[in-house]
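Please predict the structure of the following assembly.
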Amino acid sequence: MAVFPTPRPLNRILLLSLVPVASWFIVRPLLEPVPQLPVLYTSLGFSIFAFLFTIYLVPSLGPTFINANLTGNDLLKTYSTLIPESMGLVCASVYIVTLTLFIPFAFSDALTTPVHSSATAEGITVSEFPHRQLAVYLSSLLSLLTATLLGFLDDVFDIRWRHKLPIPVIASIPLLMVYFAERGNTNVVVPLPLRSLFGTLVNLGPLYYLYMSLLSTFCTNSINILAGINGSEVSQALIIAVSVILNDLLYLPWPIGVRVPVHLLGNNTEIGFGGVWKAGMAFGSKELVERHLFSLYFMLPLVAVCAGFMYHNWYPARAFPGDTLCYMTGMAFAVVGIQAHFSKTLLLFFMPQIFNFILSCPQLFGLVPCPRHRVPRFDPATNLLHPSKAVFERPPSRLTTFILQIFSVLGLTVATPHPKTGLIHETTNLTILNFLLVRLGPMSEKRLVQVLMCVQVAGSVLAFFIRYGLAGLVYDGDRR
Amino acid sequence: MAVFPTPRPLNRILLLSLVPVASWFIVRPLLEPVPQLPVLYTSLGFSIFAFLFTIYLVPSLGPTFINANLTGNDLLKTYSTLIPESMGLVCASVYIVTLTLFIPFAFSDALTTPVHSSATAEGITVSEFPHRQLAVYLSSLLSLLTATLLGFLDDVFDIRWRHKLPIPVIASIPLLMVYFAERGNTNVVVPLPLRSLFGTLVNLGPLYYLYMSLLSTFCTNSINILAGINGSEVSQALIIAVSVILNDLLYLPWPIGVRVPVHLLGNNTEIGFGGVWKAGMAFGSKELVERHLFSLYFMLPLVAVCAGFMYHNWYPARAFPGDTLCYMTGMAFAVVGIQAHFSKTLLLFFMPQIFNFILSCPQLFGLVPCPRHRVPRFDPATNLLHPSKAVFERPPSRLTTFILQIFSVLGLTVATPHPKTGLIHETTNLTILNFLLVRLGPMSEKRLVQVLMCVQVAGSVLAFFIRYGLAGLVYDGDRR
């Protein structure tokens, strides 16, 4: 008989009090006067419901997952209760169902304007049916659903990581096919210093499609390899999604008029919020506003399901995300980056992941031995995590030694020489988690995930500074 | 160590000779003179490739499925080798990838007309981008993918049948949402005898959505409950798909001019094939031709993956389809029935399934005991199948006795009375398979599936007779 982990208790009153709030957000756009961004209200309402469904469904479906043998052992605990694995599937299902039910609200005036009306809220409800946007939305959903299916297959079939690296490319196919069928824009704006060589715009053609599929591969795998401790995958996704939302909000037409002193960040333009289609960074471009609304429609429910899941995945975890969550969230970021055309900004929010990826390269490409798990080592006596180590069974090559010496000098790893030969004998595993333990000393799992979250938040703050402070040095206002 | 079933040998030369044929179909539309229905060539080419991929992938992925514990025991065999289960997932994946890669060919002139050209082949390449059709196509793909995921989840989590009956409704949500967002047509043509009451057209409104979701539920589950012997699920899907294709072909603009003597079937119109947009049943309606092309694009690859899978699922089966195949194929039929607006004709092709469903009702609704498996009983001594029986542990109710007596009189079942009480003690299980064994006597499994296929073919022939012969009695030419 399987032993089920005790589910984390839920504050029923607090949660149920969210139901009227969510309902209000959904009903409000149907009432006069129609708010300026009615669909955004609907999206918020749906997201709150998605949060509630996730936070309730995860514990109640746990036993089903355990019975179906989808279980994992928590390596960093003293107990060995089986924890339901692949529960990111629940998040992904709630997420995709939410986005599907949202379709009539986002793309049809069938709900909002039952009688023939010409004067609608500016900018959101368009008079002509937005077929093109619907096709883009549906292709995004298809890619998300494919990613979910592939993530779950990965969990069930336990695909080896070398084989699964390119899997997200498959999930990006629907996106690319529709992009191609629609003859999507494959131009990129050239940075100012290179314009004398390439001109203002360069048509990348097929390379642009390569770039898009690489983006989805990167977003997916970079979250997947930064895994191993309770809450690490979902907290990354949560913080990146919140960062994307904050970025999107900058482009919305705020009804209140405020001026942000962007010059303090080094930019020489001043942002004047306020007025319809006079959004700060959108500078009156309806297209930019629509793109960032599209991004919001995908990111708000993502934050919701991640938050709901994180409650149960938080230390000590009662549910594991599995690869499914990484695939789904990674694909969601790739989708908004591609469809809303801010992939460079998006990548800035992935700085900790990029750092982790570069750090991991010697292990990923076989220069340094790569054990099956690179998670930190757990000391049951002190309940603290220590950096785990990779042991060289054969003497390292000169290139490996050189790289590890550089990493050691930079403080990224601790490489231990063999007492007799003097050659590097073992090194701490090359992940950001082990790096944090090397720099900050042993700490508990809960503290480590908190530190990781701080790093992610700091990365996002830096990203905003680079994007709105420094980008003016290499790009002008010409954003396409 | 798992014992793998010996894969069925593949005739490599014969199969590889299909590669140039498929390639020709894909390349042909790109060459001058462009054929009249260029995209149909592409679809055929893609379908042949889908067939090849399926027939090769199923045996090569078998061990992976067995290692992931996705296995089944063949109940009707003397051996007990584990057979890989849920391999309909391979069909579904090949099918969906095929349909995805097909998008640019079906919806974009980016491939066929690189230079600006106004004179294109009549009817297929339209000058304006067919956003609406693309959205419909994508929502169909979403429903298919959802059905695949749910089917696979059903296999992994082994959902009880009472719970899984409504699952296909979920898969139909994307279809319905887009239908609603596009304000799809919810009118139905009223049969002639009822027109004095309701008029020519009746707007069903929300009931139409109910009808559509019930259609997907029916298509999926009716194939699922007609299962149990090698090849039964996939052969049904194959024959229904071929029937749909034959029906679609009637509406295409054939370049050759022939006249079909439909009056022999009792219809008073004569079909004149020939000439662009002068298709037989389409009577020059471009919309009808486009609808049936849409249906062909979904049915051709379906036939291909079913044929490829059937080779391995044929008696004695080396691979089992699992629920995944039933969900995927059922949804594919629902999709074309709904999107191409011929759901009534479609249901005619499901006559054996409808018969099986009605026959099963007393067991499905608990009047007659329903054992976990209702497959025929296997006699290892003779290698023949006999009707399996449901035993009453309590005396049957009067209603049950009444129904079973009627079924017995009609020759649908054999109900055995108890020697002492005279009450019905046991009855053959109420499925079409047991019915066939009751009527035709014990036979081998291979023979039974062949008989079942004959029944399905006979059903389709009858369906064509009803549709094009008798339908004229209750419907005029007004088809919307």
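Chain B touches chain A at residues 64, 67-70, 89, 96-97, 100-101, 103-104, 107-108, 110, 129, 131-132, 134-135, 138-139, 141-142, 145-146, 148-149, 152-153, 156-158, 170, 173-174, 177-178, 180-183 (CB under 8 Å). Chain B has a mean pLDDT of 86.
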